[in-house]
Design goal:
Blueprint (H helix, E strand, L loop, with lengths): L1 E5 L3 H10 L6 E6 L3 H11 L2 E2 L3 H7 L2 E4 L3 H13 L3 E4 L8 H13 L4 E2 L8 H7 L4 E10 L1 H4 L6 E7 H7 L5 H10 L4 E6 L6 E9 L2 E9 L10 H13 L7
Parallel strand pairs: 1-2, 1-4, 2-3, 4-5, 5-6, 7-9
Antiparallel strand pairs: 7-10, 8-9, 10-11
Bound molecules: NADPH dihydro-nicotinamide-adenine-dinucleotide phosphate and oxaloacetate ion.
Function: Specifically catalyzes the NAD or NADP-dependent dehydrogenation of L-aspartate to iminoaspartate.
Pathway: Cofactor biosynthesis; NAD(+) biosynthesis; iminoaspartate from L-aspartate (dehydrogenase route): step 1/1
Keywords: NAD, NADP, Oxidoreductase, Pyridine nucleotide biosynthesis
């Protein structure tokens, strides 16, 4: 499978590292705002940097978006129109029902798939299963260090509200809230706390419903390139790519 990457930052770096010896998945094309970034990663991956996104789509079997919600809006519709499947990391873009329905319609029409990796969170599998029954509440509490959130603050709650609002205010920090919302078909409750005493990106999820209840807590090591992003998010994309070729799906 020939893969093109949109966005050559921390997630792309980890993907290259984890997939460099993979026999089935070849990360070949690299596109970014900054061609120097694309060239840097293309060199490491023995791939091709391009400033022509359309060309990258034409030459690839699948595109991974690892850039920003804005990039999803700019590039993914045309990718799907060409019948190419996509992996979207910036899930926050899909929090808007119109955006989600539009991409879903285009994907269906062109026989393409939209894959959303589990990202920096655990428990999405359980939440999806639980959602077969009635869900009463889903709450996410995210704690990040000032460095990860991009502020120099003291310990404080900087957001308390719905996921749909959180993704607008923190578009590259709380995609996990969108993933939980899409999985449960609810606009979930989100609290974001800056905590100078931690060096992990911590996501705690509480779910209550007909099935009972569960709590999951993910204490993520941040990427050393972009501390907002957790290493697990990139690993989840690697796992998703590898699963496409598997016969037993777990
Ligand atoms: N689903 C999940 O659980 C998670 C999702 N994410 C999301 O994944 C995405 C990638 O994360 P990460 O790799 O850490 O981000 P980085 O900022 O490290 O890298 C993103 C790269 O993409 C480039 N880029 C952004 N917008 C565009 C655009 N419109 N066109 C071309 N290039 C663009 C950036 O350039 P520039 O710097 O110039 O903007 C940057 O070089 C982010 O949106 C992030 O929020 C992250 C963690 C968890
Ligand atoms: O990586 C993380 O811990 C979470 C994150 O940035 C996001 O959901 O956008």
């Amino acid at each position: 499978m020939i893969v093109g990457i949109l966005g050559c930052g921390s997630i792309a770096n980890i993907l290259i590292n984890e997939l460099k010896d993979d026999e089935d998945i070849k990360l070949k094309y690299f596109y970014d705002n900054d061609i120097e970034q694309s060239k840097k990663l293309a060199k490491i991956a023995d791939g091709i940097a391009t400033d022509n996104f359309e060309l990258m789509v034409d030459k690839s079997d699948l595109i991974i978006e690892a850039a920003s919600p804005r990039a999803v809006g700019l590039f993914i519709e045309n990718t799907l129109k060409k019948g190419k499947s996509v992996v979207i990391m910036s899930v926050g873009y899909l929090m808007d029902v119109n955006n989600r329905k539009n991409l879903e319609r285009i994907a269906k029409k062109n026989n393409a798939q939209i894959y959303l990796p589990s990202g920096a969170i655990v428990g999405l599998d359980g939440l999806k299963a639980a959602s077969i029954g009635k869900i009463e509440s889903v709450t996410l509490t995210t704690r990040k260090s000032p460095r990860s959130i991009g502020s120099n603050g003291k310990k404080e709650i900087i957001f308390d509200g719905k996921a749909s609002e959180a993704v607008k205010i923190f578009p590259t920090n709380i995609n996990v809230a969108a993933a939980l919302s899409i999985a449960s078909n609810m606009d979930i409750n989100v609290k974001i706390i800056i905590d100078p005493e931690i060096n992990r990106n911590i996501h705690e999820v509480h779910v209550k419903g007909e099935f009972g209840s569960f709590t999951s807590k993910t204490e993520n090591v941040p990427s050393n390139i972009n501390p907002k992003t957790s290493v697990l998010a990139a690993y989840s994309a690697v796992n998703l790519l590898k699963s496409l070729n598997k016969t037993i799906h777990i």
